[in-house]
């Protein structure tokens, strides 16, 4: 297909959209709603995964020792931790360091209250290893294994946090699949009807083109361009809206929820749109292409 033919097909595709304004707008609106829903769900899922990764980095498994355990016993436990392939890093906290940290957190406004414990460390048996794993999903198995190690008194880990993030992501994904399928189906149906109207309007013109030797691809190209263009327009609109709203929403959360908002990690716009833009445009163009093909197979006999 040469440049002149391509320009003609492109022009006719836009003419078809303009000619069928009502159906075109309905198709664009439906696709926009579909892509917007996909974009919102995708953004939430990305942030849930991002939070889960941050939890992996920030929340560790804490291992406490039996009372009176010797330094050699503590070192042996450290060697066991180091040899585990699931471990990313670990650090040792002595009883003295645990008490100093406790005082900073709970007695920072009333340091005089801590003076009553100056002769005796109330956290004398709180020395521990804090272990950070490569995957948060390994916490339970790692904790179970460490509980069997000689000299280990207790193992604490954030299993509820992991389960909440994992289950929330799964629930969101399952609940959204049905809605997305319905909207995709409606989008394809509307685009196929829009293209069908264009075929009906140009039926006489198509017959003439076929009589003078027009190829099947030449006849079909404007309708494919029409469907794909509608799909792309329907996907660009929600992508722009999500892009404008995302930063403002994050700022609002940070402002309104204070410390809680600052403690929740959010994925950056770049991380989200690096995948969301090609995904959204691809789905929009795909819906348009499928709708065009469905309509041409049913109504365009060339």
From TrEMBL:
<feature type="domain" description="FtsX extracellular">
    <location>
        <begin position="59"/>
        <end position="155"/>
    </location>
</feature>
<protein>
    <recommendedName>
        <fullName>Cell division protein FtsX</fullName>
    </recommendedName>
</protein>
<keyword id="KW-1003">Cell membrane</keyword>
<keyword id="KW-0812">Transmembrane</keyword>
<feature type="transmembrane region" description="Helical">
    <location>
        <begin position="272"/>
        <end position="294"/>
    </location>
</feature>
<comment type="similarity">
    <text>Belongs to the ABC-4 integral membrane protein family. FtsX subfamily.</text>
</comment>
<keyword id="KW-0472">Membrane</keyword>
<keyword id="KW-1133">Transmembrane helix</keyword>
<keyword id="KW-0131">Cell cycle</keyword>
<dbReference type="InterPro" id="IPR040690">
    <property type="entry name" value="FtsX_ECD"/>
</dbReference>
<dbReference type="InterPro" id="IPR004513">
    <property type="entry name" value="FtsX"/>
</dbReference>
<comment type="function">
    <text>Part of the ABC transporter FtsEX involved in asymmetric cellular division facilitating the initiation of sporulation.</text>
</comment>
<dbReference type="GO" id="GO:0140359">
    <property type="term" value="F:ABC-type transporter activity"/>
</dbReference>
<dbReference type="Pfam" id="PF02687">
    <property type="entry name" value="FtsX"/>
</dbReference>
<feature type="transmembrane region" description="Helical">
    <location>
        <begin position="174"/>
        <end position="201"/>
    </location>
</feature>
<keyword id="KW-0132">Cell division</keyword>
<dbReference type="InterPro" id="IPR003838">
    <property type="entry name" value="ABC3_permease_C"/>
</dbReference>
<dbReference type="GO" id="GO:0005886">
    <property type="term" value="C:plasma membrane"/>
</dbReference>
<feature type="domain" description="ABC3 transporter permease C-terminal">
    <location>
        <begin position="178"/>
        <end position="285"/>
    </location>
</feature>
<dbReference type="InterPro" id="IPR058204">
    <property type="entry name" value="FtsX_firmicutes-type"/>
</dbReference>
<dbReference type="GO" id="GO:0051301">
    <property type="term" value="P:cell division"/>
</dbReference>
<feature type="transmembrane region" description="Helical">
    <location>
        <begin position="222"/>
        <end position="246"/>
    </location>
</feature>
<feature type="transmembrane region" description="Helical">
    <location>
        <begin position="21"/>
        <end position="46"/>
    </location>
</feature>
<dbReference type="Pfam" id="PF18075">
    <property type="entry name" value="FtsX_ECD"/>
</dbReference>
């Amino acid at each position: 297909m040469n440049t002149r033919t391509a320009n003609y097909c492109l022009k006719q595709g836009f003419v078809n959209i303009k000619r069928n304004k009502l159906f075109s707008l309905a198709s664009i609106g439906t696709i926009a709603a579909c892509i917007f829903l996909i974009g919102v769900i995708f953004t939430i899922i990305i942030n849930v995964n991002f939070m889960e990764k941050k939890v992996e980095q920030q929340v560790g498994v804490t291992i406490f020792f039996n009372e009176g355990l010797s330094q050699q016993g503590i070192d042996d436990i450290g060697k066991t931790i180091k040899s585990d392939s699931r471990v990313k890093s670990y650090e040792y906290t002595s009883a003295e360091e645990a008490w100093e940290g406790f005082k900073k957190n709970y007695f920072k406004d009333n340091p005089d209250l801590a003076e009553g414990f100056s002769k005796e460390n109330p956290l004398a048996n709180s020395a521990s290893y804090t272990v950070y794993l490569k995957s948060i999903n390994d916490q339970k198995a790692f904790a179970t294994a460490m509980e069997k190690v000689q000299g280990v008194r207790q193992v604490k880990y954030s299993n509820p946090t992991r389960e909440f993030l994992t289950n929330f992501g799964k629930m969101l994904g399952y609940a959204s699949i049905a809605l997305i399928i319905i909207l995709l189906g409606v989008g394809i149906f509307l685009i196929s009807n829009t293209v069908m109207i264009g075929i009906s309007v140009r039926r006489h013109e198509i017959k003439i083109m076929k009589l003078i030797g027009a190829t099947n691809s030449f006849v079909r190209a404007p309708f494919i361009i029409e469907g794909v263009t509608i799909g792309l327009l329907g996907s660009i609109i929600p992508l722009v809206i999500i892009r404008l709203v995302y930063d403002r929403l994050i700022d609002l959360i940070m402002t309104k929820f204070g410390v809680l908002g600052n403690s929740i990690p959010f994925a950056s716009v770049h991380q989200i749109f690096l995948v969301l833009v090609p995904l959204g445009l691809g789905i929009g163009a795909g819906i348009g292409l499928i709708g065009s093909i469905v309509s041409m197979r049913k109504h365009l006999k060339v």
